[in-house]
Design goal:
The protein is mostly helical. The chain is 81% helix and 0% strand. It is built from four helices and no strands.
Length: 91
């Protein structure tokens, strides 16, 4: 079923459905990213990429291929989270 057909059946403007759909999509993506960040943060006992970097530099976390991979994933997820926040704010 198309958005136009749904809009007609529900007597809602197509633009309203599109806008709400985009916002819901972004919020679901944000929840997924935040969940992944939460899991990584708990794994290393940190709240941000900065804290993780500090713990690695101070030797509290040993640098391994896994921790390096997690570091880059953490950094990427934080960037994606920030982008999603901005998109939601502007939608």
């Amino acid at each position: 079923m198309t958005i136009a057909a749904i809009a007609t059946k529900l007597n809602i403007p197509k633009a309203t459905i599109e806008k709400e759909s985009v916002r819901d999509f972004l919020e679901r993506r944000l929840l997924t990213v935040e969940t992944e960040l939460f899991l990584l943060a708990n794994k290393y006992g940190v709240r941000s990429i900065g804290e993780l970097d500090n713990k690695i530099k101070k030797g509290f976390i040993h640098e391994t291929s896994e921790s390096r991979e997690d570091f880059f994933k953490f950094d990427s997820l934080e960037a994606k989270r920030d982008t999603l926040y901005q998109l939601i704010k502007s939608s």
